[in-house]
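FIELD: query
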Amino acid sequence: MSVIIRTKLVKAGAWRTLESYWNVSGRTLFFNAPAGVQIRLRYSGWWTAVTRQQQTLDGVTDKKLTVGRWSLLTAKAQAKSSQDVQLRYAEGAEGP
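FIELD: result
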C-alpha cells in the first residue's frame, strides 16, 4: 500500500471536501486529530446522495474512511469543524 500524507485547511462552518473520487475503490484515509472535527464519506450521483462512515475525531483514537463499492458514484471525503483547523491525514491506496 502506498501512503501519502496530506494537510488541508478546513474552514469553520459547512462540510468541506478534502478528496474526490469517481469509480475508485481501495482508498483509505486515516485521521486522528484535532479533536472535535467531523469526517465522512459522501457518495452522490444522478439523483441520489448518501452519507457513509461519519465519525468525530477525538485526538486519541485513529479513525479511517474507506472508499468501497459505493464509489461507482462520486465519493467525497469531507470534514467539518467549528473553527478553522489544519487537518493532517494519510491517504493509502492498494496496489502498485
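FIELD: remark
DSSP finds no helices and eight strands in the chain.
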